[in-house]
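Protein modeling request. Please complete all fields; requests missing the sequence field cannot be processed.
Requester role: graduate student
Desired output: 3D structure, token encoding
Chains: 1
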Amino acid sequence: MIETYEAAVSYIHNRGQFKKIPTLQRMQKLLALLDSPQDKINAIHVAGTNGKGSTVAYLRNLFQAEGKTVGTFTSPFLITFNERISVNGNPISDATILELVNQVKPKADHLDATLAEGGPTEFEIITAMMFVYFAQNPVDVVLIEVGLGGLWDSTNVVKPQVSVITTIGYDHMRILGNTLSEIAQQKAGIIKQTVPVVIGNVSDAAALKVILNTANKNHADSLIFNRDFKVENIKQFNWEEHFNYCSEQLNINDLSTTLLGDYQAQNAATAITAYLVYKQLAHELINTSIIKQGILQTTWPGRFERIHNNPTVVIDGAHNVPAVTELVTTLKKQFNHQKFRIVFAALADKQYQKMIELLLTVPDVEIYLTTFGTPHNRQNADMSKLIDLTHPQVRFIQNWSAALKTAMNHSKNGDLVLVTGSLYFISDVRRAVVK
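Delivered output (435 residues):
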């Protein structure tokens, strides 16, 4: 029996992260011991390289705007561990975390003692806690974000009402594969028999073909960005993105979102399409005013979020090459008259050199490379060795707080300070700056 919240979180984090052979059998055995809670919830399952979090946030606000109670399962957390399991955007309590751990731990102990490869991993424990919570505390819909990949992800034991694949890009190649087709195969693993799948902006033809082949094999209807739905007339002003949503079923003009970037309009369109499919399956009426309200009310901390004025400081968790590519496009398109000071830190297992090269294509930019307190078993990228290899406007400052202070002190009105890289880094900065 674990007696404190701190001990419960410590127990979770001290579980192993990975096993040698990927399988869902261990997760299925754990849930069977817990009375199969995954079969007692009403879910939408969201995978993808980037855009998962934003798409889940849009979906949550769309359902909330019509008065539904919405559960979410997301990762990683930004401020507190409890954020991973939320109801209407509110994280569950410390007491609930403790209670859930004490329900799951005896079953995990049993598997520790009986399985040759050992019991459940850290993420499997957290996923089981989520399923147990929503089975015991029912909500109208649970939005489940895949942790890593899809096919072997511990969330992939659920049969949802709708599946969503947001994007396909290079990330976690050591685990998911070295080609976009291989990565797409992993993401497409969430597609279930006869469950419709909404596919976001998957621009690589080979990756899209893999997803569609999987959908066809599972007799799952597919709706694809730029074929079955699209966004038009994207414009940005007053820190809002305005766009039109177009599909065969519904056209909505002048939608607004405070999440900036063309890719956020695309994420919103993906979320709207998944929402419409869900509503159709439930035989529920659709209200365009509610859709507009839900999209406008959506916020997602750490995604091009303004956290300070004079100078303007924005944080954005662009933690892989595809995300940095989209971020750079946004900076060039929408902030082309400002000087940029970018504070960047990344984990060692990311393509951080390529990410820095992309950031250097931003006009009138200074980059401050730095480090942060990494989570357990993870390492900072060794930025200090890159200075001579990159650009005269790149500096290394060991302490991220000093790097941010330097960037802010050198900025004038009209300049933009951008803090980006690892989501764990963004979390540290946001916790320190946003009071």
